[in-house]
Specification:
The protein is of the alpha/beta class and 249 residues long. It is built from eleven helices and eight strands. It binds 2-phosphoglycolic acid.
Amino acid sequence: MRIPIIAGNWKMYKTVDEAVALVRELKEKLADVNNREIVVCPPFTALHTVYKELSGTNIKLGAQNCYFEDEGAFTGEVSPLMLKNIGVEYVVIGHSERRGYFNENDDLINKKAKALLLKGLKPIICVGESLEQREAGETETLVRKQVFRDLDGIEPYQLKNIVIAYEPIWAIGTGKTATSTEANRVIALIRNTVKEMYSPLEANSIRIQYGGSVKPDNAHEILTQSDIDGALVGGASLKADSFTAIVKF
Ligand code: PGA
């Protein structure tokens, strides 16, 4: 059985005070949830404070990015070691906003994934096509290529600590969602790619989320599809009521 994982990607929102206020509301509203894994991913500046707020709760802490070295002269970067040290458990890597605005490629994402796994952290690896790629009929080829490259050299035993998020870029922050059947189809294709690279065992156990305009009113329809194991939520994770409704889909 794959336990659904619902992660809130707060992006570049929330000062420390705002983050504390949101997480206090979430702790209360989500206290009775025990059949889902819940993760919040605040900006770096709020991580440590949110970690302290989350102590003893059923909500886990995630970061939105990292570099792949432990330390060094890499101005502005944050390492897996540093994240581990402040209680982070999950790290989103390869988000389309990182790929798009900051030119991150699959080689870099693969290095980050390996560095995180070495530190005992769990990567949430994002893949997904743009509207142009979808319209050109390239979705399948592109997503398969991303999975092959992002997981390259990762050992079978490490896969249990990896989550993949299928996030069609045209659905992120646009209010457009992939239909539940289309999201399920691409996610099944990702699962099949994992099977090709590893084995049916790994393919059946890896969790694959959907992300892109998940809201309270479409969460149930999307998250009850056979191959979809949760959601990576942007906009709707910034308010306690909407995130709670999605977690309790
Ligand atoms: P959205 O963002 O829910 O606001 O579309 C999803 C994401 O970028 O992870």
